[in-house]
Amino acid sequence: MPLRIALVGTENSHADHIVAHLNVDPVRETGTATARIVALVGADDERNRKLAATGGITQIVPTSAELLGSVDALIVTNRDGALHREHAVPFLEAGLPVWVDKPLAASTADARAILDAARRGAAAVTSYSAVRWVADADALAAAEVGELQAVTVTGPADPDSEYSGIFFYGIHAADLAQRLAPGEPGPVTVERVGSTVVVRYLCGGVLVTLQLVKPTDDGRVPFHAEIVGRTGLVSHDVRLDSEYVVPGLKVFLDMLESGERPLDDATMLAPITVLEQTHTIVGQTVQEV
Question: I need a surface site. Which of 20, 163, 184, 289 has the fewest CB within 10 A?
Answer without folding.
Answer: 289
